[in-house]
From TrEMBL:
<dbReference type="InterPro" id="IPR041218">
    <property type="entry name" value="DUF5606"/>
</dbReference>
<feature type="domain" description="DUF5606">
    <location>
        <begin position="3"/>
        <end position="48"/>
    </location>
</feature>
<feature type="domain" description="DUF6852">
    <location>
        <begin position="51"/>
        <end position="120"/>
    </location>
</feature>
<dbReference type="Pfam" id="PF21186">
    <property type="entry name" value="DUF6852"/>
</dbReference>
<dbReference type="InterPro" id="IPR049282">
    <property type="entry name" value="BVU_3817_N_sf"/>
</dbReference>
<dbReference type="Pfam" id="PF18347">
    <property type="entry name" value="DUF5606"/>
</dbReference>
<dbReference type="InterPro" id="IPR049280">
    <property type="entry name" value="DUF6852"/>
</dbReference>
<protein>
    <submittedName>
        <fullName>DUF5606 domain-containing protein</fullName>
    </submittedName>
</protein>
<dbReference type="InterPro" id="IPR049281">
    <property type="entry name" value="BVU_3817-like_C_sf"/>
</dbReference>
Length: 139
């Protein structure tokens, strides 16, 4: 499963897997408790594959950031939790993405990235970018 079917829904905790579309919205399943919910088309929904993180040079897709965390943590969960203090979160994120734009990436954004990574990791979703081999060759 790739990030194209993983959703963040405004006002709801965690992440959701898109199951199907309906006339008035769609049906999604929570990755936290596996409950299915119906979401209206008017809800604030973000697809993880469409989210990017600001760096000093460009915007990096969230999948690439997740891939960098995966490599740093050798395939495991993050060494810091999303509830750590601001300084620890920023230090960790600086190790993962040294050129992130500190003025445009807030501690709340870093918390979400770490929390989302760990949720995906718990659910066995580690295919963050289309072709992981190509990305590692570019680095």
């Amino acid at each position: 499963m790739s990030l194209e079917k993983i959703l963040s829904i405004g006002g709801r905790p965690g992440l959701y897997h898109l199951l199907t579309q309906t006339r008035s919205g769609f049906v999604a399943e929570s990755l936290l408790d596996k409950k299915r919910i119906t979401i209206s088309a008017h809800s604030n929904v973000s697809v993880l594959s469409e989210i990017a993180i600001y760096t000093l040079e460009e915007e990096i897709p969230l999948g690439e950031v997740f891939q960098k965390i995966l490599v740093k943590e050798k395939g495991g969960k993050t060494s810091v939790g999303h509830k750590e203090d601001k300084l620890k979160l920023e230090e960790y994120f600086f190790e993962v993405l040294p050129n992130y734009d500190e003025d445009r990436v807030y501690p709340s954004d870093i918390k979400k990235v770490i929390q989302w990574y760990n949720i995906l990791q718990e659910n066995g979703i580690t295919e963050f970018i289309k072709d992981a081999e190509e990305a590692s060759e570019e680095e």
